[in-house]
Amino acid sequence: MINVLMIEDDVELAQLLKARLYKDDIEVTVALTPLEGLSLFQTHTFDLLVLDLSLPQMDGMEICRLIRQESQIPIIISSARSDIRDKMMGFSRGADDFLPKPYDPQELIFRIDAIMRRIHPSMPKTIQVFEVNEERHEISRLGILLKLTPAEYDIVSYMIKKERYAISREELLMNIGSIKYESSLKSIDVIMGRIRQKIGDDPKNPRYIISVRGVGYKFVNQ
């Protein structure tokens, strides 16, 4: 798991990002003030710092300078101050990236993943390509909503929950209410073909829905 220190005084935003990043195996420790952030940085080990600029007690630029003096930890500035002069100063103080607010949490995940893989080339990807919103009954691929039928949604949602486990056609028929158990096993293959088209999976060289000989399928969400 990637350990991130986030210095951010917007409590609601910080908690939203913490919850969202945790789903992608990124543990976030939130500091609401610069002094708390600097104290945590001195006493704990982190892989990356996400830093706001407009903070109480001390400007984020000064925090960036102080931390860079004693550490090469990657720093992503996350700020509503997106003027070119702020960006120039941030990079000159040692920041590795600058993410203007507001932004989709998925973009922060992309940037964290890119920085960590550059530092550790053998590190596996943490990005989850597909995200399920159970309340809205929706599934998105890299932030883009997929147009799925109820049966297709139920199948993909079920497979994502059991990611990397081989799932038989019989299991899908028994556990997915929108598919009648009387349906033939062959009908599952037809539905899988439609799903692959909608999620951009190459049937000749599938990346997300992998056929398991003699069993059924498994789902890879990376």
Give a written overview of the molecule.
It is a single chain. With 222 residues, this protein is an alpha/beta fold. Helices cover 41% and strands 20% of the residues. It contains eight helices and eleven strands. It has a five-stranded parallel beta sheet with strand order 2-1-3-4-5, sandwiched between helices. Strands 6-7-8 form a three-stranded antiparallel beta sheet, covered by helices on one side. A three-stranded antiparallel beta sheet has the order 9-11-10. Strand 7 and strand 8 (144-145) form a beta hairpin. The longest helix has 15 residues, at 105-119. The chain starts with a strand and ends with a strand.
In the sheet with the most strands, the strands line up as: 2-1-3-4-5
Structure class:
alpha/beta
Mind summarizing the main beta sheet? 5 strands, parallel
Question: Which range best describes the helical content: under 10%, 10-25%, 25-40%, 40-55%, 55-70% or over 70%?
Answer: 40-55%
Order of helices and strands: EHEHEHEHEHEEEHEHHEE
Number of helices: 8
Strand fraction band? 15-25%
Low-confidence stretches: none
Mean pLDDT: 89
Number of strands: 11
Rounded Rg: 21 Å
Distance between the termini: 16 Å
Morphology = elongated
Give me a quick take on this structure:
It contains 8 helices and 11 strands. With about 220 residues, the chain is an alpha/beta fold.
List descriptors.
single chain; 222 residues; alpha/beta; 5-stranded parallel sheet; 3-stranded antiparallel sheet; 8 helices; 11 strands; 41% helix; 20% strand; elongated
